[in-house]
Write a structure and sequence with these properties.
This protein is of the alpha+beta class. It has helices at about 80-90, 120-135, 215-220, 240-260, 285-300, 315; strands at about 1-5, 10-20, 25-30, 35-40, 45-50, 65-70, 95, 100, 105, 150, 160, 165-170, 175-180, 185-190, 195-200, 200, 205-210, 230-240, 260, 270-280. The strands form 6 sheets. The chain has a 6-stranded mixed sheet with strand order 1-12-13-18-20-4. Strands 2-3-6-9-5 form a 5-stranded mixed sheet, with helices on one face. The radius of gyration is 18 Å and the shape is globular.
Length: about 325
């Protein structure tokens, strides 16, 4: 087993697009051919599109794109641009009246960073697809990570800038990768050491503060309803839809391991799993490696590079 760049996983193109000054953006995953897809939502307040189709009991047999976006529910508009891009190229579910592109999407809340009046829209979703043609994806304050922050349990004075991150693994012929837009309410911890690497931060003391220790005092005060971490697993596995859902469920172990708290009623923590169907894979191995990839992608997202809108990041303070 060895680490690879997520762009080495064949069968998928990934593109970022953002409105930098507004602190928001989106990231699209375009399979080269329709990919089997499942989704597991553990947060209590998701903003999502076309996720019901991904249930194992639904007739849908794949998606043409998955979009991760900022903008809260407004950001779902960006999926319309992805649909237009695919329709122009004749990609989608074939009907007697033309193709219907199948695009699933989830959004995170970043309206408190940059401008709340500028959100990912259809034009930005379309641009992300154009950018995916050249595989412009990179970790940092780009795409869906443009407006991501962590450490919001104690209010805006204690937040740190996060972003979008990725990690990928090759195990023989099996390739698994994770992309995470990290917008957590609380604190973030390293996979290997358990060390806190981002979260609630005291700028004056230049040290971390425990968000978990303060939860009892702040519950109900509306201090952490502006969150949601969204992610996608991409792999070349040959697997059935129900097993792929199990992979998405197991991948959430990465959230629980690396983000505290995770899966609250005030966020929409969601993980998609996409499979291109080329390499036979055991669901247990695939799920376990996916959870590791999620944790490592969270670490990458917790140390963003690029324009951080004047908000301190882990790279600034550690």
């Amino acid at each position: 087993m060895r680490e690879i760049n997520i762009k080495e996983i064949q069968g998928f193109r990934i593109g970022n697009a953002e409105y930098p000054g507004a602190g928001t953006g989106c990231t699209v995953i375009l399979p080269d051919k329709k990919a089997l897809c499942a989704c597991d939502i553990r947060g209590g307040a998701p903003a999502s599109r076309e996720t019901a189709l991904l249930s194992p009991v639904a007739s849908n047999d794949g998606v043409n794109a998955v979009l991760l976006s900022g903008g809260s529910a407004f950001g779902l508009d960006a999926a319309s641009g992805v649909v237009r891009y695919l329709e122009e190229r004749g990609i989608g579910f074939e009907t007697d009246h033309g193709v219907v592109p199948i695009v699933s999407a989830s959004c995170l809340f970043d309206l408190g960073v940059g401008s709340s009046k500028v959100r990912p829209d259809a034009a930005l979703g379309y641009q992300a697809c154009i950018n995916a043609e050249d595989s412009n994806y990179q970790d940092g304050c780009f795409g869906a990570g443009a407006g991501c922050t962590v450490g919001k349990l104690l209010g805006p004075k204690h937040i740190m800038k996060s972003g979008i991150g990725s990690y990928a693994i090759r195990c023989n012929d099996l390739c698994i990768g994770a992309i995470v837009a990290l917008n957590a309410a609380g604190d973030v911890f390293a996979y290997e050491t358990g060390e806190k690497i981002a979260g609630c931060f005291d700028k004056e003391a230049k040290s971390f503060v425990s968000g978990e220790a303060s939860m009892e005092d702040i519950l109900g005060k509306n201090l952490f309803r502006q969150n949601t971490t969204i992610a996608a697993i991409i792999c070349n596995a040959l697997i059935d839809k129900a097993s792929l859902l199990k992979v998405a469920m197991m991948a959430h172990d990465g959230f629980a391991r690396s983000i505290r708290p995770a899966h609250t009623m005030y966020d929409g923590d969601s993980i998609y799993a996409l499979a291109s169907g080329e390499v036979k894979a055991d669901v247990n191995l695939l799920g376990h490696l996916s959870s590791i990839a999620i944790s490592k992608a969270i670490e990458a997202a917790a140390r963003p590079c690029g324009d951080c809108l004047g908000i301190p990041s882990a790279l600034d303070v550690l």
